[in-house]
Write a structure and sequence with these properties.
single chain; 444 residues; alpha+beta; 5-stranded antiparallel β-sheet; 13 strands; globular
Length: 444
């Protein structure tokens, strides 16, 4: 039997218990307030308890529930501070940790995929997982040629679990949606479902990782570990050390945060331009800051997990750069025409060009200056502006459309900006767009 809770009724019951548990705590909290406890203290207790239950269930279920939690974690910077505080620690836990699969189950998978004599492929193999994520866990080992390697083993039943969890999560999306203004949870879940098959296919992941490793071999800024071996649901890659980005977020100096932020922005734009692929899972658990000897300007960004990519043979679409360039030049009519041509504005919708430009100006602030300071406060302000029904931006935003071709690009960009805000990094976003984003350089 799989180590994942595979039975649909069991998994559904756990997810269905979330709203019931939250409702029960709310009733208990009301009683405490009636009893004289302050609303602030009770609310904080309820938020912490809700976070503990929500992410305990997501982590135990792994599968789609945990994948959803990982994706959601990068939007933490958009939460109001009074909500973000209790949730921050629980969100971070999902980025690179989960209850592990027993060693016996790991051995069984390796024997099935690599052969009964799988141990002869390794000089040593650590049964303790170095990391456990949404659909698999990673073990540290030494390959037969002496190279330190990471052995990624997919959980048995992961595909079934992913589909089941995401189907159930779509029914309780209302629990999470109100926490993050401006983020529509259901389309996010739908898009995640569409990516499941790719992420479960380790052969596709190995192919994407090889392309990146070859392109960035010897690069002064980006490091991608090469693929050593791949067989069905097992992937062996070179080991990537360094400091997890989550640690830089929680305890890094401002200089470290700035360097990590610069490299993250660089990879966002340079990656698709150089490889024709967009790394589509930019949560902090997939990045490492490699603190090489020498000045901090020489430190590199290590990138892992290429299970989800968007294939962009020509790099990021030129209309993105064109629209940004025109917005910076205050060409409101040109921006609206471009948005309409690309399907962001449906033919039947009539909008005022100046209103559209006013809607975009705060969002494109990172493209205005040479170095932009990404902060939680800035992201919260953007989210609140778009989600406030009293704001003109709210009504205009509801009239815009997100074409399918741009859905993943939009999520990856927004997620990366979310991580930059978690870092509190000051980064040359405009410079990276000028160097790598088609159509934008004409703005210089």
């Amino acid at each position: 039997m799989s180590d994942l809770p595979r039975k649909a009724m069991t998994r559904t019951a756990r997810l269905a218990a979330l709203p019931l548990g939250i409702a029960g705590r709310a009733t208990l909290g009301l009683g405490k307030r009636i009893g004289g406890r302050s609303a602030e203290v009770v609310t904080a207790e309820l938020q912490q308890a809700t976070a503990d239950q929500l992410f305990k269930v997501l982590g135990e279920l792994k599968g789609g529930a945990m994948k959803f939690g990982q994706v959601l974690s990068v939007f933490e910077a958009a939460l109001p501070e009074e909500v973000a505080g209790p949730y921050r620690a629980a969100l971070t836990k999902l980025q690179d940790a989960a209850p592990p699969m027993p060693a016996a189950s790991v051995h069984a998978v390796l024997a099935e995929r690599l052969g009964k004599d799988w141990r002869s492929d390794f000089r040593s193999f650590d049964d303790r997982p170095a990391a456990a994520a949404s659909i698999g866990q990673v073990h540290r080992a030494v390959w037969q040629d002496g190279r330190p390697v990471a052995v990624k083993v997919q959980y048995p039943g992961a595909g079934e679990a992913l589909l089941s969890d995401l189907g159930q999560l779509s029914r309780v999306a209302w629990l999470v949606g109100p926490l993050i203004p401006g983020l529509d949870i259901k389309p996010l879940i739908t898009e995640l479902r569409e990516r499941i098959c790719e992420e479960l296919d380790y052969a596709l992941e190995a192919e994407a990782q090889r392309v990146h490793a070859k392109e960035f071999a010897g690069d002064p800024d980006i490091t991608v570990p090469d693929v050593v071996a791949q067989a069905d649901q097992v992937l062996v890659t070179e080991w990537l050390g360094g400091t997890p980005l989550a640690e830089v977020i929680s305890a890094g100096s401002q200089a470290e945060r700035n360097r990590a932020g610069h490299l993250l922005a660089h990879f966002l734009f340079a990656g698709p331009a150089r490889t024709g692929l967009l790394h589509a899972d930019p949560h902090p658990g997939n990045f490492r800051l490699l603190k090489d000897d020498g000045p901090i300007e020489g430190w590199r960004l290590g990138v892992m997990d290429f299970g989800t990519v968007d294939r962009l043979p020509a790099g990021l679409p030129r209309p993105i750069g064109d629209a940004l360039r025109m917005a910076l030049a205050d060409d409101a009519v040109g921006v609206l025409d471009m948005l309409r041509t690309e399907g962001f504005v449906k033919p039947t919708i009539q909008l005022d060009p100046d209103a559209v430009l006013d809607y975009l100006r705060p969002i494109i602030e990172p493209a205005v200056v040479d170095r932009f300071h990404f902060t939680r406060a800035w992201m919260r302000a953007q989210a609140a502006r778009i989600a406030d029904p009293r704001s003109p931006a709210y009504n205009l935003g509801k009239q815009l459309n997100l074409p399918p071709d741009y859905l993943l690009i939009h999520r990856v960009t927004l997620s990366t900006i979310g991580v930059l805000c978690q870092l509190g990094a000051e980064a040359p976003f405009r410079t990276e767009m000028r160097d790598w984003l088609p159509g934008f350089a004409a703005a210089e």
